[in-house]
Amino acid sequence: MGAGGSFEYVAKFVEDDPELEADDQRKLAAYVREHRITGKRARRRFMNDKSALEEIAGPKAAKVLRSRLRQKKVRVGKKAEEFFANVKDFIAAKHEIDATAERVLPRSYMDSYQSFKPAVLRHAEGMSIDDVYQSAECTRSAFEQAARSVVEAADLDPDEVVTHDGEELMLTDDLPFTRLCLAPPKGHARAAEKIRDDYEGDASRLVDVNRCSIVVDEEQQLVAVASKLMEKCEVVRLKNRFAEPLFNGYRDALYSVRVSSGDTSHICELQLHLAAVIAHKEKTHHYYEYFRSYFAGSMAEVDSRMKDLMDIGISHDKSLEGLVNDLAASCTDVPRLKGLARFLGYGGMDEYELAARLYDRCLDVHLTSLNAARLLWRDKTASIAQSFRGIDDANALKHDSKPVEEICRAQLEAADNAQWHGSEGHERPRPTCCAPEVVEAWEAQCEAWRKAGALFRETRDRASSKLGNEHPVTLTAAASLAGWILEDKDGDWNEAFDLCSDALPKLAKVLGATHPDTLDARSQLAQICWSATTKKSRERVEAAGYESSAHAAAALFAENIEAYRAMGEPDSEHRLMNMTQLARVYNEPALARYDDSLAVLREALERYRRTLGEANSNTDACLELVDRHAEGLERVSQGDPFYSDDEEEA
Question: Is the entire prediction scored with pTM above 0.70?
């Protein structure tokens, strides 16, 4: 609960608290409503007067509520605040350009030109970057002549200076835009970066070394130029960003045209702009460069991440600290909570405390929903049945698998959040310091871990009983339970192996080999096989058809890696995690594929840098594995295992 909030929110908070008995909930909520106790008054009244709270609610309820009230507001780092400030300004700038576009493009004529592209757009296959630049030089004059003829055919003067709001529209500080702007060749360094980030090292796909821009004033001129371009040039690709704007709201059209000079053919880029929109370019380009650098990825990657941020719904009048505190206090929109938490924890900001606060709120929301769903399932009255599913006959609820499936899925998500929240406490011993809040936090984490295991098991049993042993929810719950058992200090390896090895082939059959739940189960089974350390457990893995536990883990991780690649997700975070695990398995004595391990690690590191940037914990962890590789080889040369005892524990 945050420091503020209405008395009704405080009362609702008490009523929904799963730690309180029903009588305690009603008694304390009634007191809050009667005395109109808001969050701030609750802190003053109850934190400073323990006996008064106990008299009202009883010792147990008082202890629970005081622990909630003790929660502190989060604080954020400078890096996160800078990022958040740029996000807010970016959203404001996007709203400005959207408003301009609505004003100057009232008829949306350009929407009739559909974007298109070949399967792969490239020059001759196998060209190097030097070959591409040589080809561009040979065809530059022909390209400029073709662009000039298009402008003139649209009844425009190529050399006319463009104005907007009565002033010259400036291309640089001392050079205005003209109807036709011929740009110098693309810089060699930027070209090399684009080949690396966007084209997987294939220089033949670089098709914008030769570039020019055409700038018009109104929608009719825009369509006239577009029409002449299709008529007079060999257009091999069109990106119509008037119909599909960039993530920052900027709109233009990019034409890839093939021109020839003698025996040389080359693809060039022609950009079509509207003056009122291009007037915003300086401001929007700042955010383009900032976020492209921040996310260290391709335009598609940046576009995807910025759309996620837009979906979170960030208000311009809120600080990041205020937003997180508000969401952690009262938000019930789980996708929004998780979206922001992912950016805070894994989007390059490394604000894990803030992310944990939001994930904690997700857990609260799920547990509340879960309790409501359970109560609903037990109540067979017609009125409840109708309000839940719109079912006329209450008896139909007994035969409808949908409520059971929804309850089970809610339980699974709640268990996932509880496991994530509790893993840190489960993995470390009880704190020896005397600070009570530290010990309380550790105890809460351990309790969350235990609840996660119980909830996974309950979900598997409920789904198996109500939905059947081969229902996707039953199988997913079994694989999740197997993962929890593997990590639990008292977990039974054989049970984990039985659950996951049974669930994986059935998930692949029911959902498909590349479904996320199947991929997660396969990764889970790889971990289980890899952890087979006793003679009996290794024999069980070998009985399943593998040469060794290491061979089994390597085969399963490799199968996942290939699946993500085939799905068009080579930079997926899940794929990269499978790659780092595969690299570690390769170093096992049964495989001893040390060169392959290093090659996989280097590829994963490069992809982490490209998608998450240098300042990210995943990138750091992968870099550390690369750095330690030489140390491992040195140990092997001396007859010792590749990994030291410390590294094995890690």
Answer: no
